[in-house]
Amino acid sequence: MSYGSDLRHVAVSFALLLAVAGASFAAPLPKTTQEMLKKLKLESSIMSGLDKELEVPKAWLDGARKEAKLRIFSTIDPPQFEVLSAPFKERFPFIAIEYNRASHEDRAIRTLVAYKNKKIVTDILTGVGGSFFMFRDAGAFEDLRNIPNWKNNPPGTSDHDGLWVGMHMRYWCMAYNTKQVKKEDAPKKWEDFLTHPIWRNGNLALGNRPQLWSLQLWKAKGEKWTKDFLARLFAEVKPQLRREGMNAMLELLAAGEFYGSIPSAEYRTHQKVLDGAPVSYTCPEPVPVAVSEMAILKGAPNINSARVFVNWFLSKEGQVAQYVSDFAPPVHKDLQRREFLPFADQIVGKEHAFRDPALELEVQPKLLEFWDPLWLRAGGRQRGR
Predict the structure, then answer these.
(1) pLDDT band at 50, cuts 50/70/90?
(2) Taking Cα atoms as reference points, which of 60, 126, 61, 68 lies closest to residue 98?
(3) Where are the domains of the chain?
(4) What CATH architecture does domain 31-169+291-340 belong to?
(5) Distance, CA of 1 to CA of 378 (rounded, Å)
(6) Among 99, 299, 330, 383, which one is most buried in terms of CB atoms within 10 A?
(7) Is residue 306 left, alpha or beta, with left meaning phi > 0 and alpha meaning psi from -120 to 50?
(8) 16: pLDDT strictly greater than 60
(9) How far apart are CA 242 and CA 249, in angstroms?
(10) Residue 54: its pLDDT value, please?
(11) What is the dihedral angle through the alpha carbons of 168, 174, 180, 184, rounded to the nearest 10 degrees?
(12) How far is the C-alpha of 264 from the C-alpha of 258, rounded, in Å?
């Protein structure tokens, strides 16, 4: 072999070594991400493939640098969003985020009215729920199927036309006061509320949000079963009818105002447990499940920054950051693990009933038509009053 051939052989071998090394060693994680994994007691190997997930078109990054701004309307508490967005800001310091926690009225209705008047008040919008179809009919949402990490979402957790993508899972079951209810008395099936005397005499609190949990029961059990169950719940169990929001009901539950509250979100209940409140969580079967939506407004002035953020949010890093910030279970297909699910023993292995925007459009009007008279006859206040 000639000297020139030896050099070529060495060069090729070195190039192969570099290629193998590049495939084996990922770029260092941001300091904030390392701290999050340490807090969760997870190895960095859970982030395998992250470098690939964070690859986006160069034009997006160039555009984001020029825009240098991103506006987000969501439901996440501002301090929690600061935690969630810390790794993103470390990776993309050239994008300044303007965040607003907005009510459904502000997020959905006012944003859409402004859009129809050719004024775009945000780039990213989350939690539109049943208002999605108004945005769709107005042509107000971008097609997100070009987002690389779109593929990370399991089937059913994104819009088939690409107009929204799920950002996290939500389980709407029941929280209960552990000083007043033993774990063995927690209901296993929804019918248990009708048969166990512990839930009578005003011991069960009911929020005026049937769309959060009864829609899924309608889907899983059928119209007749759901109507019969709700009618008996109001007539026989006679729950307290509460006008507070779901988070405020958790506060009252912890204070001993009632034994159990429906509906309650698992992540909010977990936050109360960490605060030392005497509460726990149970999910009767079928477990009502929902996914919160994330969308980008069509024509958003900071479209590149929005795409970069959504892609990051759907990555393993974004999903872990979200969980650390507020315990919202990841939607990423590779993170459907017990480590990311508060009260996993109450959820894993049970039959699930899933709610999506289509169900809200088709069934919710029928559900509310049946629910509202029950609520009013039992002494509840009319919506909006």
Answers:
(1) very high
(2) 68
(3) 31-169+291-340, 171-289+357-377
(4) 3-Layer(aba) Sandwich (3.40)
(5) 94
(6) 330
(7) alpha
(8) no
(9) 8
(10) 97
(11) -100
(12) 14
**Cβ 233 vs Cβ 191: under 8 Å:** no
Residue keyed to tokens 């979200």: 322
Nearest to 250 by CA among 346, 328, 174: 174
Which residues share a beta bridge with 355? 290
Q: What does the pLDDT read at residue 12?
A: 43
pTM of the model: 0.81
CATH superfamily entry for domain 171-289+357-377: Periplasmic binding protein-like II (3.40.190.10)
Does residue 13 register a pLDDT over 70?
Answer: no
pLDDT at 103: 80
Q: In this structure, what token pair is assigned to residue 188? A: 């296993």
Let me know: does 174 contact 281? Beta carbons within 8 Å: yes
**Residue among 126, 166, 179, 151 at smallest CA distance from 296:** 126
Whether 131 and 112 have beta carbons less than 8 Å apart is answered as: yes
Helices (H) and strands (E) in the chain, counts: 17, 10
